[in-house]
Amino acid sequence: MISYDYPLSERVRTLLRLEDLFERVDYFLHRNDHHEHHIALLSIFEILEVSGRADLKSDLLQELERQKQSLEALRDNPEVSEAALDNVLWQIDQASSKLFQASGKIGQELRENEWLMSIRQRTNIPGGVCEFDLPSYHYWLQQSADQHRHDLQLWLSPFLPIRDAIAIVLRLLRESGKTTAQVAYQGVYQQMMAGRVAQMLRIRLKREYHCVPEISANKYALNIRFTTQEGMQRPKAADTDVEFELTFCNL
Predict the structure, then answer these.
(1) Which superfamily, per CATH, for 9-172?
(2) Does domain 177-249 have CATH number 2.60.440.10?
(3) What pLDDT was estimated at residue 54?
(4) How many whole angstroms separate alpha carbon 75 and alpha carbon 185?
(5) What pTM was computed for the model?
């Protein structure tokens, strides 16, 4: 199965972007080639850019507190595991505490590092980090993989509190919805929202369909059009029925 998450709010869109960037950093951070460590650093710069929203930290703290209160209300529910509930609440408390202790603007330590900011500035220029452009960066890239990992983990550390908070919020969001089986006849699916409130859509379909969902949604209607891609040609509408799973996620 292939899953597609589609955000229905700007806040969720930002969280999904950051989740993707953290996964990319984690992957390239644990490689050994200096080209891969260069990509890890570029991804950290992207995290710095995306997380620069002034209200991101407060948004996450408020959402974690809201989820904590909602979960506490389930404590007397016989269908809810007490141990599982305590574990989730503990994770929320840990993430909230670390996020609250993170002083100042997220990533401010990196913004005050002139050497890193000089690299960041050059990365906006195609091919702008050649050895003759930034000899000091070229020298760093020639150090050992262990040295790279040490430095990259140090530069990533200011963002770990938001990474942990985002992981909890998105996990709860994904688990919040009820999944239903649907069919897109001739590759097209439409559904009226009829007052339904959602922050994210999840679509899952079998790989055998070889098609991709194109989604548009507003407070009135949801439209999904499945398209196929053949070689370098433009995508074209799927001409077969497509079975898929649909989940409306809302916290």
Answers:
(1) YacF-like (1.10.3900.10)
(2) yes
(3) 63
(4) 43
(5) 0.91
